[in-house]
Design a protein that fits this description.
mainly alpha; two-stranded antiparallel ribbon; 17 helices; 4 strands; 66% helix
Length: 443
């Protein structure tokens, strides 16, 4: 019997062949799916958030390819196995609502709803494949380590680009729309949103008691580097969301787990982060943080509040089914109460925009999804200090919480790269509680 303090190790997939798959072909497909999933999720942030049509198409095509690979994996396997997830129900209900909008014409712009429905279908496919395939510890660990490395590289790039800024993304792509660029994103808040979901992975690993000290230090450094760019991006919503993440994690380890070592580690990481920001701060971070005392006292905050008020009138006009998924920028000019030369493409509040586009029914489904996520994931966090899979569940809960908080003041879930990673995290957070339906008859 192994000691509870035994340290985890980097799992060698070759030594686990018999546990991973019933045949070499199935093993190859398992790892091909994991690799392609990581590539698809990493592609979005690098392609400016996958907001351009070509990038959105690549994301959708990659999602479809993942489902095809999963189907091929089932065909070559001796046993067909399908894992159920508690979040399947709200996702299916939301899909049925959008189908109802399309079939009955209850949308202000049918093509916009159809186009957005295809994108949400890609999110659903990513969620499905993640639920079905990221179950073995080896693959979950590979996913976590891959996105820890990806987050570090993305943060380093963002910092280098910031301090060598020439007005162009990647130093070659012109910023035609005049956004507040940070990293590969045109909007600094969307970069912060991605980092909010990536940081908890190395942060939780740094708090695990069973990793070696050197590994914990490396994970802690990775988390600090990634977190510092949230502040350097100067996204107020990102700063608040990250603070909520840290508070939630601190309460969990300090109150529920009653672990002094983890609490002390969190405080030390926060202190080092503050020191790092003092050295790296371009001078605007303190000024931006001071705006938290009066968030509506600046033009951006005031405009967002007006847009939300206008959106409430849109909800009142079509309260049940809404105006149609993806139609907010089309319908909003008819309800806009102020003059502007700018194109208003979102409400800067994902909850309000969801209600505008899908009505109170859609908002209710979203509430069901969030409730189901927390209800399920909380039960999968046990033994997170010693085991990789529960640790990833905890990291997913923290990352999803940060995104839900940030969605109160920004529209991260309208950005394909961030939305698809959000659904992948949601799947990882609920996968351990998923039940399976198996066909055990050999082929």
């Amino acid at each position: 019997m192994s000691s509870p303090n035994a340290r985890p190790y980097l799992i060698n997939p070759y030594s686990r062949l018999r546990l991973e798959a019933a045949s070499p072909a199935a093993w190859v497909l398992d790892w091909s799916i994991t690799g392609l999933l990581c590539l698809v999720l990493a592609f979005g942030p690098l392609a400016f958030g996958a907001v351009q049509e070509w990038a959105t198409f690549v994301l959708e095509a990659g999602s479809a390819a993942l489902v095809l690979l999963w189907a091929a994996r089932q065909l070559v396997s001796r046993h067909t196995r399908f894992y159920r997830n508690p979040l399947f129900l709200p996702l299916v209900l939301f899909a049925a609502l959008v189908c109802l909008q399309l079939l009955t014409g209850r949308t202000a712009y049918w093509y916009a709803t159809w186009r957005m429905a295809l994108l949400w279908a890609a999110y659903g496919m990513i969620f499905f494949v993640t639920t079905q395939c990221l179950r073995r510890t080896a693959r979950v660990q590979a996913f976590a380590l891959s996105f820890t490395a990806f987050g570090v590289l993305l943060a380093l790039f963002a910092m280098v680009q910031q301090f060598t800024w020439n007005g162009k993304i990647y130093w070659v792509v012109p910023n035609r729309y005049g956004g507040w660029v940070y990293g590969p994103y045109v909007n600094h808040a969307h970069y912060a949103g991605m980092m909010e979901m990536l940081v908890p992975i190395p942060l939780v690993f740094a708090l695990m008691s069973s990793w070696s000290k050197s590994c914990r230090v490396l994970f802690g450094f990775a988390a600090l580097l990634m977190a510092s760019t949230i502040f350097l991006s100067q996204s107020l919503g990102g700063i608040v969301a990250f603070a909520v993440e840290m508070a939630a994690l601190g309460i969990f380890v300090g109150v529920k787990q009653r672990s002094r070592r983890q609490v002390v580690t969190l405080f030390l990481l926060a202190a080092v982060l503050a020191g790092l920001l003092v050295m790296l701060s371009p001078g605007g971070i303190a000024k931006r943080i001071s705006r938290l005392h009066h968030p509506m006292g600046n033009n951006a905050g005031g405009d967002r509040l007006v847009i939300v008020k206008d959106s409430l009138r849109m909800i009142a006009a079509r309260p049940v089914l809404g105006w149609g998924l993806g139609t907010f920028p089309v319908v909003y000019p008819s309800f806009r109460s102020f003059y502007t030369n700018y194109f208003v493409n979102a409400t800067h509040n994902d909850y309000v925009q969801t209600t505008v586009e899908t009505g109170v029914l859609g908002f209710g489904i979203v509430c069901l999804l969030v409730w189901s996520f927390y209800r399920t994931s909380i039960h999968g966090i046990g033994h997170w200090q010693r085991e990789v899979k529960p640790a990833i569940v905890l990291a997913s809960v923290v990352g999803v919480t940060g995104m839900l908080v940030h969605s109160l003041s920004d529209f991260n879930l309208q950005i394909p790269a961030n939305a698809v990673f959000f659904f992948a995290l949601a799947a990882l957070g609920t996968a351990n509680s998923s039940n399976s339906v198996a066909n055990n008859s050999p082929r």
